[in-house]
UniProtKB/TrEMBL annotation:
It comes from the Bacteria. The keyword Nucleotide-binding applies. SUPFAM superfamilies: P-loop containing nucleoside triphosphate hydrolases, post-AAA+ oligomerization domain-like. Pfam families: AAA, AAA_assoc_2, MgsA_C. InterPro entries: AAA+_ATPase, AAA_assoc_2, AAA_ATPase_RarA/MGS1/WRNIP1, ATPase_AAA_core, DNA_pol3_clamp-load_cplx_C, MgsA_C, P-loop_NTPase. It comes from Ureibacillus thermosphaericus. SMART domains: AAA. This is Putative ATPase.
Length: 430
């Protein structure tokens, strides 16, 4: 057993040993009470790697007398599933823990689903991907609950590490280790809410530390050297990556510079520079928009520079772009106006293009009635340029308005012009 990783050895043996995830498996939860009363429902466990999905499954199994079968959907075949189905027929009921359940193929699913439905197989599925996006609806419908796990808190990680340090049977308790509370806390902080990373880092620190007079003495420099990249969770293209993109955009939209830089840093550490550049460019036009039209050009220049430079230098222009967007005036009026127009078309609010706006650059256009267009540049209006009062929307839509200006930044000036032109049009139409 000592050859197995510390994180494996320290898995909870029953639900009372679970550290963290108390909103799911704490003593006051319905799940805890059901298991204590001998009932285990089928369920999905959703969350980032290392925060307890497998541990909870094993803890549940250890709290019951039911046969327990762990499978990984990435390597399991139809024969593996059939063996578990046969076992369920013999014993009456088994627990199947299916890791990476979003990889479950249709053939495996067809073999398993009837037995999950009749209760002979209790399915505990684990996934790092959003189950509403990546888990087949047939599986979801047969699982009574979808539990979303959270990263462990600093206090929970410290408790987990101390458990491992004191446990003589499964942990490091049989060794004399000189490690103080601040060092344990450093390991917990570096682990970024990930229980597996915390225990793996502790084990690495233990093996990298010098033994003097039968005492393993832990140095701060050892922890710092081993912890450099432990907070980075790199599932490029997965659910967590898209959550980071979403968090970045919402933080910029909310003008929180520090949160925005944090999420940008995390995204760049994951390495998908192109996806980050695309999202930043969208944000410049979606969230800053007409309030500061120059931002679009600035962000485009920054993202192009980032692609030419590559990582790690790409972080420099992107940091400039993110801070500028955070602190800029903001407006979403332009794309909201276009979406309103698209919605109107989909609702059937359409009409004929006015005759004077139709193409007149060919012989015979006059015969078709394509006449009457007034060229605005021929009608100067103050310092604006040119404007003439004529109808542009179809007859049945001419009073529709899609654009609602936001009175912010440069758009404030545009809004004044917009309202002035509306008043001129209304005055001339009276």
């Amino acid at each position: 057993m000592q050859n197995e990783p510390l994180a494996f050895r320290m898995r909870p043996r029953n639900i009372d040993e679970v550290v963290g995830q108390q909103h799911i498996i704490g003593k006051d939860t319905a799940l805890y009470k059901m298991i204590q009363n001998g009932h285990v429902p089928s369920m999905l466990l959703y969350g980032e790697p290392g925060i307890g999905k497998t541990s909870i499954a094993y803890a549940i199994a250890g709290s019951t007398n039911l046969p327990f079968f762990p499978l990984n959907a990435t390597i399991a075949g139809k024969k593996d599933v059939e063996q578990i189905v046969s076992e369920a027929r013999l014993t009456g009921k088994v627990i199947l823990f299916l890791d990476e359940i979003h990889r479950f193929n249709k053939l495996q699913q067809d073999t398993l689903l009837p037995h999950v439905e009749d209760g002979s197989i209790i399915l505990i599925g684990a996934t790092t991907e959003n189950p509403f996006h990546d888990v087949n609806p047939a599986i979801r419908s047969r699982c009574g609950e979808i539990f979303q796990l959270k990263r462990l808190t600093l206090e929970e990680l410290v408790q987990l590490l101390k458990n491992a340090l004191h446990d003589e049977e499964r942990g490091l308790g049989k060794y004399s280790i000189d490690i103080h509370d601040e060092q344990i806390k450093k390991i917990a902080i570096a682990s970024n809410g990930d229980a597996r990373k915390a225990l793996t880092l502790l084990e690495s620190v233990f093996h990298a530390s010098e033994e003097i007079d039968d005492i393993v003495r832990v140095e701060d420099s050892t922890i710092e050297h081993l912890a450099k990249r432990i907070g980075v969770y790199g599932d490029k293209g997965g659910t967590h990556f898209y959550n980071l993109l979403s968090a970045l955009q919402k933080s910029v939209r909310g003008s929180d510079v520090n949160a925005s830089l944090y999420y940008l840093a995390h995204l760049l550490e994951n390495g998908d520079l192109i996806a980050v550049c695309r999202r930043l460019l969208v944000m410049a036009y979606e969230d800053i928009g007409l309030a500061n039209p120059n931002v679009g050009a600035h962000v485009y220049a920054a993202t192009e520079a980032a692609k030419v430079l590559g990582l790690p230098e790409a972080r420099i222009p992107l940091a400039n772009a993110v801070i500028e967007m955070c602190l800029s005036e903001k407006s979403n009026s332009a794309y909201q106006a276009l979406d309103a127009a698209i919605k109107a078309i989909h609702e059937g609010k359409t009409g004929d293009i006015p005759m004077h706006l139709r193409d007149a650059h060919y012989a015979g256009a006059k015969t078709l009635g394509h006449v009457g267009y007034q060229y605005p540049h021929d009608y100067p209006i103050g310092t604006f340029g040119g404007w003439v009062n004529q109808q542009y929307l179809p007859d049945n839509l001419q009073d529709m308005e899609f654009y609602r200006p936001v009175i912010a930044g440069e758009e404030k000036r545009m809004a004044t012009i917009y309202e002035k032109l509306k008043s001129l049009k209304n005055h001339n139409n009276q």
